[in-house]
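Feature request, filed as a ticket because there's no other form

It would be nice if the structure record came with a short human-readable summary line next to the C-alpha cells. Right now we just get the raw output. Example of a typical job, pasted below so the devs can see what we mean:
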Amino acid sequence: MIRKVSFALILMLLSFHAYSQKKQLTYCNPINLDYGYTPIPNFAEQGRHRATADPVIVNYKGDYYLFSTNQWGYWWSSDLADWKFVSKSFLRPEHKVYDDLCAPSVWIQGDTMLVFGSTYARNFPIWMSTNPKGNEWKEVVSNFDIGGWDPAHFVDDDGRLYMYNGSSNVYPLYGVELNAKTFDPIGTRKELLLLKPERYGWQRFGEHLDNTFLDPFMEGAWVTKHNNNYYLQYGAPATEFSGYADGVAVGKTPLGPFEHQSLPLSWKAGGFARGAGHGATFQDNWKNYWHVSTVVLSVKNNFERRIGIWPTGFDQDNVMYTNTAFGDYPHYLPTESTDHLKSKYTGWMLLNYNKPVQVSSTLGGYQANNAVDESIRTYWSAASAKAGEWIQTDLGMLSTVHAVQINYADQDATFLGKQQGIYHQYQLMYSADGKNWKMLADKSNNKTDVPHDYVELDQPVKARYIKLINQHMPTGKFAISGLRVFGKASIAKPTAVKDFLVLRTEGDKRSAWIRWRTNNDAYAYNIYIGTSPDKLYNCIMIYGANEYWYKGMDKEKPYYFRIEALNENGRSTLSDIIKAE
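Raw output as currently delivered:
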C-alpha cells in the first residue's frame, strides 16, 4: 500500500511539474527584453533610462535573431517569447564612441548571417557568422567603403545583393546593387524615394501632424519581396511621435521605381504602446509574415523607445498590411500557418483601465493612477525601492483573469549602457474581497531582467483585486508605468456605437473630424480606417473620448471608416462603414 501511494505521489508530482512548465502561448507588446540603458550621458538629461529602437528580426535555421540600436549584443529566441541575450560588441576600439551599433542591417546569405551598422566612416567592418547562437563572429570585410545611416541589405531570389540606406528630412532613401561575394558596389547608388507630406497626411511632422517646425524624416529602409513585387518599407515622420509609422512603397524591381501605398504599413497612434515605425519584416517557421518595429516613449528624451511585434501579410490584391488592432493586448504566438487578416488577438480585455488604485507610498507627482491610465509615458513611483513597497489595482468586479503585464518605469536609475546580471523580483497576489489573498505568481527568486514582464496564467483565476509587491529592483525606485490586467468580466458586451460621424474638410483633404455618441457601457473604442471598404487595415484605439482628429489621409483617395466599442467583456458589433470623399 505504501509503495502504491508513493508511486502515485511521484506520478502526481511529475505531472504537476510538467504542467507548471507549460509553454507560453501568448505575448504582449512591448516585448519583454532586457533593454540596455541609454549610453550617451547627454541623452540622459532628464534621468537615466532604458532605450532601444530600429529593430531587425531574421529567421536563421529556425530560430529568431533580434538586433537593435545600442545594445552591445543581440537576442535569439525559438518561439518569439523567450529571448536570450548574447553579449557582443561589433565595434573596434578605434571607433571611440559611447554607443554600440546604431540601426544595424542584418541579412542572410546562404548559410551565413551578416551584420553591418550605421556609419559614414569607411573603417567599419561587415561581420559574418554561421553560429550566432554560439557568438562566433569574424570580419568578412574589414573596411566597408559604402557608409550610410540606417542601412539595410536585401538578397533577391537570384542571389543578387542590394543595399539601401537613408535617414534625413532632406535627402531620399538610396539603393545600390553590391557584388554578393566582394560587397563592392555595382554602379552608383540611386535615389529611390522621398516623402510626400503634401499628399499623404500621416507623413507630416508633429505629434498631431500639424507641426511646421521641421520637415518630416524618412529613415529605416527595409525590402520584402512577394509575388514578384518589391515592398520598400520606411519609417516616418519622426521617432518621438505617437504616429511614428512604417510606410511602404511598391516596385517591380529591387531599385524601383516605387509608388507609395496610401495607408502606412504599420501604424499605432493610440493605446498603451504607441508607435510602430522603423522596423523590419520577417517570416516565422510557418511562413507567416511579422513586422517588428519601434514603440515610442519619449519622456526622458526623444529617443526613449521600446520594441513591438505585429502580425503582417499581403492580401489577395498584393496590398501589404500590418494588423495593429489590439496591438498592445495579448496575442497568440505562431504555431501554424495562418491568415493574419484574421487577428491573432486572444479576446482578453483590459480589466482595470482607470480603476481605483492603492499604493504603499508615492514619490512626488508620480501618482498611483498613472499606472492604470493606459499611457506608457506616465507612471507611478513609490518613495523607495525597498522590499514590501506595493501597488494594488481594483478591477471593480469579480472577473476572470488570464494574464497580467507589469511595465516598470525608470525612476532614479543609475546605470548607463548595457547591464548584465541585474534582475527584478516580486510577488503578484490576487483576491476576491481584498482581505484574503492568494499567490498568482511568485518571482521572489527570479534572476532575470524583466522590465516588461508578461505573466500568462496556466489556468485563469477569479479575482477582483490584483496586488504587486516589490522584492527587488535592479536600479532606482519601484515604479510602474502600466500594471495591466487582462481577461473577461461578467457583464454584457457594449452596445453598438451610435451617431458615428466623419467630416472630411474641403480645405485639407488629408484631415477629418471623427465623432460619435459616448457609450456608457464602454471604456474605449476602435476606429478602423482604409482606402477601400474591404481593406480597413489601420486602426486606432481611443480611451476616454468621443472624438478624434484624424489627419493621416491620402488627399487623392476616398476613405472608409467604422467603429466598435470595448468593455471588460468584449466588443460591440461594428458600425456601418462610412465613406469620406
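Something like this underneath would help us a lot:
The two ends are 81 Å apart (CA to CA).
The chain has three domains: 26-332, 349-489, 501-580.
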